[in-house]
Design a protein that fits this description.
elongated; Four Helix Bundle (Hemerythrin (Met), subunit A); 122 residues
């Protein structure tokens, strides 16, 4: 059976909605990991900042792909902060607070009801 253009658009939108829901759920878990890795970074775990950066990078890229522009921007902020801190040993209290605040801003965005992908007009 051949589907109409409207049916194909509806199916694509439904699939994007499914992907967005999975992404949002996965991102909540990754934020929990970021929090734990930030604690480890404060204790001198050299790999912890790289882990946070990698998670932020993935959230940024997938978020942008799915149309979550604000979320992608917040994740990119975390990515930039961790890149600046890497290689300098354990981050100081100010840097740790700045990174923790950035992670919490991302968490608030994901946890809020206003997180909606930007969908292009068809």
């Amino acid at each position: 059976m051949t589907s109409t253009p409207e049916e194909r658009v509806a199916a694509a939108r439904a699939r994007m909605g499914e992907l967005a829901a999975k992404f949002t759920e996965r991102t909540r878990g990754e934020i929990d990991v970021m929090r734990a890795r930030l604690t480890a970074a404060g204790s001198g775990d050299a790999a912890a900042l790289a882990d946070i950066r990698n998670l932020a990078h993935r959230i940024c890229g997938t978020g942008a792909t799915l149309g979550f522009e604000s979320l992608a921007e917040h994740a990119h902020e975390i990515e930039k902060l961790t890149s600046m801190l890497q290689g300098g040993g354990a981050p100081d209290a100010h840097a740790t607070t700045e990174l923790a605040n950035a992670i919490e801003r991302l968490a608030n965005l994901v946890g809020g009801t206003g997180l909606e992908p930007v969908t292009p007009a068809v």
